[in-house]
Amino acid sequence: MKLFILTVLAISVALTLSCSKSSTDTGDILTAEDLLVDNNEITGWTYSGTRWTANSYSELTDQINGAADTYEQYGFREAAYQEYSGTIDSGTRTLRLTVFDQGTNENAGDTFDDPGTGLSGATPWTGGAGDDAKYIRHGLSQVLSFYSGEYFVKMDMDFDTEESLNILKQFALNVDGKIN
Fold first, then answer.
1. For residues 117-141, b (16+ Cβ closer than 10 Å) or e, as one string?
2. Number of H helices and number of E strands within the chain?
3. Which residue has the higher pLDDT, 70 or 49?
4. Structure pTM?
5. E strand spans, the chain
6. Between the CA atoms of 97, 93, 122 and 69, what dihedral angle is there, to the nearest 10 degrees?
7. For the chain, domain boundaries
8. Residue 69 in contact with residue 116, Cβ under 8 Å?
9. Engineered SS bond to 99: which of 10, 32, 87, 138, CB 3.0-4.6 Å?
10. Residue 143: helix, strand or coil by DSSP?
11. What top-level class would CATH report for the domain 35-179?
12. pLDDT for 10-39, tens place per residue?
């Protein structure tokens, strides 16, 4: 009997030690910056231009000017931004990705629904990233946004074709995968 108890105890300890959080578990995410797409994570899309983080309303205001009020209204905690460049239709294109930590899923959803984010009249992306997603095409550029957990994610591209929309969707799915 003593041997049986020791065996069960040893197996329990071994199982406890072998279990760990995966890198995509939200318990491992420390900042909004952790959710940005890595350099060349999406083949052909590399860091370019600016990267910034904002950990206060005043820092966010310095980065996005008048739009900061919308995020502050819904519990803004931090944001991270990165520009990427890649090639579509033989031309170099720029994609801008911003991740906002809004503190709660409800705040992220309220941010997503606020007209101040510029998504009025946008097309829903059913089966897409996050709890809800939509995109808007302007003819020369596009915006795609979603929210998942406490994060509101917004990205835009300076080009508007089906291929560029698919690149935006791939970025969205990659970010959402890191949240989940």
1. bebeebeebeebbbebbbbbbeeee
2. 5, 7
3. 70
4. 0.82
5. 46-54, 78-88, 91-101, 123-124, 132-137, 142-148, 151-157
6. 40
7. 35-179
8. yes
9. 32
10. strand
11. alpha beta
12. 434 333 333 333 333 445 556 999 999 999
